[in-house]
Amino acid sequence: MPVKTLPKSVSVLIPLALPAPYDYEVPDGLIAEPGSYVIVPLGAQQILGVVWGEGTGEVDPKRLKPILEVLDVPPMPEVLRRFVDWLAAYTLNPRGSVLRLAIRAPGALEPQRMRTAYRLVDKRPARMTPARQRVVDTAMDQFARTTRELAEEAGVSDGVVRGLVDAGALVPVDLPTEAPFPTPDVAAVSKSLSPEQQAAATTLRERVDANRFAAILLDGVTGSGKTEVYFEAVAEALAQGRQVLILLPEIALTSQFLERFQGRFHCRPAEWHSELSSRERTRVWRGVAEGRARVVVGARSALFLPFPELGLIVVDEEHEAAFKQEEGVTYHARDMAVVRASLGQFPIILSSATPSLESAVNAEQGRYERIVLPERHGVAELPSITAIDMRTEPPERGRWLAPRLVEEIANALAAGEQAMLFLNRRGYAPLTLCRTCGHRIECPQCSSWLVEHRFRRELVCHHCGYSAPVPKACPSCGAEDSLIACGPGVERIAEEVAERFPEARLAVLSSDNLRGPQSHEEMFRAIEAREVDIIVGTQIVAKGHHFPWLTVVGVVDADLGLENGDLRAAERTFQLLQQVAGRAGRAERPGRVFLQTYMPEHAVMRALVAGKRDAFLKREAEARERVGLPPFGRLVGIVVSSENAAFAQKFARDMARHAPQAEEVSVLGPAPAPLALLRGRTRLRFLVKATRNVNIQAYMQAWLGEMKVPAAIRVSVDIDPYSFL
Ligand SMILES: [Zn+2]
Ligand SMILES: [Zn+2]
Known about the structure:
By secondary structure, the chain is an alpha/beta fold. Helix content is about 30%, strand content about 25%.
């Protein structure tokens, strides 16, 4: 009896919201190995997928559909496939949705376009002219050039070059159209390091050499030289033939970083972020996959690039909330970077001047190694921080700056120095109120006030982007010219500064008037060149920029971040204000920082004024440990939303009834979310709290498995939430 061979089958994961891969047949003549990018039929469509492993055998072999095509790109590395699986399981997302994050460079899987260039061979035409001779002389170096390039360099017409091609003296070669990636110069000598920096760099180099997982918290005040120190680890990894990923929280603000990189390695790294053109994305994705791009500096999504030889990750400003992806597949890029390093068995460096409580506790408990860089490199001293009690030193009526702060700014300007005012609130005023009837203008789609933007002459919702012109009459009572702006935003502070210091050159830095990296670069250059006297800005100014002439920093409303009261409010306020303070006095001029506050006795203000960061973190950690909050316990945020309010409420109550009973797990809610209405959807929140030893994913799966979610309802689950709105 003839042996009937079964068709060879593989499982293919498709980048759609599907939990598992599907089986497909591998037709004769095709080679589909694990990780191969393939085109497969799905219903009536043809779709891209990735071979995830052997076929599961769950589909009748006779009914298997065949793989249509195997794409000519290096297979997705096994470690990246395991990372996709791990992240999907941890965040409770379908594996296909996570896979989509790893193939977000549409053109990268298509064959690369080539251009034709020409190289000189050992054959000369029968008829040589002086023009032809110039082309031959130019091409003598054997570099391949296009017709145009050759003609230009030799100073002849294109026709002369074509004549030599016809005569066989120049032969065509295919060159990629994409620009190549320069090789970082690892042999270059770094700036001279202090003994402490040298010691830290040596330790980091040793961790890289050891070729196994290690998490290191690089902890040093602003200006202590953390970047120069971890560049030594980068150099070491590159010298070992490994690729390196450096994650930054705000990719639009990297110009200074790129300059420093260039200074150390004599080339620019590859960049990966949302502002890249799709063509550039394609180039970088392919460069990484083929191992040509050795160093990538990127935003959180760079974690999903197909590095075949990744050997080091650096997470700079590791405490930044921007590492948390809040839309779609929610994940914390810092935490997932640690997982990626652990799967790949190589070290990860978390760098910060104000480490997150999570990382500080991990270092405290020995899970992370901590390297402390104590002093400012080549800089005199840290700025002094003073609280201005707004209850005893209030500003004049209708003003926002306390007299003492105004005086300090005037002194700085008189000395030819710069001053900066920080307020983490965009626009002119956070609330517009009717003087006649008390009506507050709200977003029609969200439960939030509209923020006046005076430059744009609009009221804007900062949650959904809704905007409308400022009305002449009150929309509620119809009274004319009755609307008043309440509270300050940066635009209003800028207005006060312009009135008080009419001679001073003023720069306003906010995401509303700075769009794209170029405008940032230009603004920061102007500040460094002392073309600006006073800077008024939102958190854009808090990030690591050197302003050597800046000596006075005023925080207009130091209490602002404490208002929303979530578990990290104090920690984040401390980090943000500490970073803002770090902008002042970076050269030989000592900086002075003033915090305007109504709560000078608050632990955050006291710790900032006294410079007691570690004591503050320790107290915060103790407070969280007492109530079992992260990092000592686990949290899951759940938002139930619907356009139909009654429907959302009913479903949430139903969900509450189905919550499984479990030891050491408590379910809080449902309660209306602080943002109870967002983009027209009513939102209710649950908060699941558990001890660290609970498998919270299993608990959630059991719970959600009980629920049939109707189409009109959306349930979003956020493991380790950072936003509680
Ligand atoms: Zn009114
Ligand atoms: Zn809105």
